[in-house]
Amino acid sequence: MIIALKPGVSREDIIKLTSDLENLGVKVDSSQGASQIVLGLVGDTTVINDEALRANHLVERVIRVQEPYKRANRAFHPMDTVLEFKSGDKTAKVGGGSFAVIAGPCSVESREQLVSVAEAVKKSGAAFLRGGAFKPRTSPYSFQGMGCEGIDLLVEAKKATGLPIVTELMEISQLELFEDVDMIQVGARNMQNFNLLKELGRSKKPILLKRGMASTMTELLMAAEYVMAGGNSRIVLCERGIRGFDNFTRNILDLAIVPALKKKTHLPVIVDPSHATGLSWMVPAMSKAAIASGADGIIVEVHNDPEHALCDGEQSLTPEKFENLMGVLRKYAEIEGKTI
Ligand code: PEP
Ligand code: MN
Q1: Which ligand is nearest to the CA of 137?
Q2: Which of 20, 75, 134, 322 has its CA 20 to 30 A from that of 307?
Q3: Which atom of ligand 1 is nearest the CA belonging to 238?
Q4: Cβ(269)–Cβ(296) under 8 Å?
Q5: Are 191 and 211 contacting, i.e. CB atoms less than 8 angstroms apart?
Q6: Reported pTM
Q7: For a substitution probing ligand 1, which of 139, 167, 168 has the most ligand atoms within 8 Å of its CB?
Q8: Ligand 1 pocket mutation, candidates 210, 299, 311, criterion most atoms within 8 A of CB
Q9: What is the pLDDT along the chain (340 residues), one digit of tens a residue?
């Protein structure tokens, strides 16, 4: 971090500011420019409050050289993080050369629906089963999910198929119900629910953290940093589309964030082509594009009867379409040197 001081700052003020900064654990080097002093800070500057510095009457400019996130930063952790999920004699992985396919309905609607979709996606080669039990819906009059009963059905489907399960947690009081859930999803609407992120930092469960619909890459990484700062570094990041001006698709799939994230962080990155496009016919193209962009997997909605789905039918693949997609994805994965 570089701090340019205002011209004419007194020696006493510089000594005081330097010692305040050094008390935060960083080393401060000062150099005299033509008309002003410039301070160079070396060390862990994540603890420094930029805003307070900018408001300081001695300071003209503050330039951050390093990102404000440390634990999620590839610079401090060059090796890829790989998450492993043991289920029976199988181990599903996210990151590290595997392309993880997470598939299932938007919402758990009934035992028949979930069992039928779970068996179908398993047969086609999905590594994880998804399904929402607690649903964040725009309208309070829409189906809100089956709640605890939905979690029970997911656990049943996990026992029947051996697939690890991924489902969304909307508030921390629900955590006790997630004991048998393998990966907890934090949805786009909760990406900056900092109290929730802090609590999940204390939990031992892997977290699927979806990008907020108007969040920058740094905000997504800072959200991951919240969880990691609490002690939980088993996080998967997910690009699920952001808001744009064109409503032809439900959201705008920002695939360019995938290589950018892979450069900035060691955490695995997956893509959600279903919520990104909102249209099932676009899901195969965007799934292939996700592999090509370097993603570590996808999370896709599949429904046995999309026309009658209680949530997100328009973007849900039928089991047959999903089966076809998996055939194509295997070839794409091979080109990228990944295994499905
Ligand atoms: C979902 O995965 O069903 C979901 C609600 O996703 P998002 O938070 O990305 O909208
Ligand atoms: Mn959905």
Answers
A1: 1
A2: 134
A3: 9
A4: yes
A5: yes
A6: 0.94
A7: 168
A8: 210
A9: 999 999 999 999 999 999 999 999 999 999 988 889 999 999 889 889 999 999 999 999 999 988 889 999 999 999 999 999 998 788 999 999 999 999 999 999 999 999 999 999 999 999 999 999 999 999 999 999 999 999 999 999 999 999 999 999 999 999 999 999 999 999 999 999 999 999 999 999 999 999 999 999 999 999 999 999 999 999 999 999 999 999 999 999 999 999 999 999 999 999 999 999 999 999 999 999 999 999 999 999 999 999 999 999 999 999 999 999 999 999 999 999 999 9
The residue whose CA has the least distance to atom 1 of ligand 1 is: 106
Q: 294 CA distance to ligand 2 centroid (A)?
A: 23
Q: Which atom of ligand 1 is least distant from the CA of 241?
A: 9
**Which residue has the CA at smallest separation from atom 8 of ligand 1?**
187
- 100, β-bridge pairs: 297
C-alpha span between 246 and 86 (Å, rounded): 42
- 315 with 274: CB under 8 angstroms? yes
Residue type, 48: I
Name the closest-CA residue to atom 3, ligand 1: 106
Nearest ligand to residue 316 Cα: 2
Ligand 1 pocket, 241 CB below 6 A? no
- Residue 184 Cα, ligand 1 centroid: separation in angstroms? 12
